[in-house]
Amino acid sequence: MAVLAGSVLVPGLGEIADRFGEIVVGGDVLGELGVTLARVCLGFALAFAAALVVGIAMGRHPVVRRFFEPAVLLGLTVPGLVWALLCVIWFGVGLANPVLAVALSAAPALTLNVYQGIRALPGELLEMTHVYRFSPWRRLRYLWLPALQPALFSGARLGLSLSWKVIVLVEIFGLSSGVGYQLNNEFAAQSVAGVLSWTLLFGAVMALLEYGLLQNLERRLTRWRKAVSV
């Protein structure tokens, strides 16, 4: 494609590979990726905790559902770009900016998944927890979390994909470190090969999280389902 285009705006594979090597060898690539990953993890953890509490409450109490449902639906429709811009305006260049932008973008999808998982629970299991007088902690540990595992993992994948998109926008607009900041530098230098190289590195981290972390964790935590089905 690069040869056919004959334009400097469409780099060849060799040029991309060269720039990729320069970034990996000559730059602080691990530091930049680590900063972005830390921001994503903090924001996603905040979104996950909030979604777990609100989603379970929405599934158990109609009043809570009616109160939070409009906010969840609105959050699903707001583009990540809007959250990025608002958090830059509200919180400046501090840590709160990327963390809250990620949390605000990921929380609605996670909350909806948790709510739907709670609604799908068999009524007999809920009645059993009442009969045996399970405490809220025991219900969370032995009923809700095991039953919600499929919804939580699907929500985690969706939430992480949204988080990565938003964190890049936040770093581009208002921060001086991270992958988004480096992408902005490559854009300012009109380096298409540099933009594609950082994008490839970004994609490699996403693949590592999916295949190295989420899938392995899901297999371990869902072994009991396979044992029961057998």
From TrEMBL:
Keywords in alphabetical order: Cell membrane, Membrane, Transmembrane, Transmembrane helix, Transport
CDD domains: TM_PBP2
Domain of life of the native organism: Bacteria
Chief place where the protein resides: membrane
InterPro entries: MetI-like, MetI-like_sf
Compartments in which it is found: Cell membrane
Coiled coil start-end: none
Spans through the membrane: 37-59, 71-93, 187-214
Topology within the bilayer: Multi-pass membrane protein
Record domain ABC transmembrane type-1: where: 33-214
Keyword Metal-binding applies: no
Family label: Belongs to the binding-protein-dependent transport system permease family.
Official protein name in the record: ABC transporter permease
Organism, as annotated: Saccharopolyspora gregorii
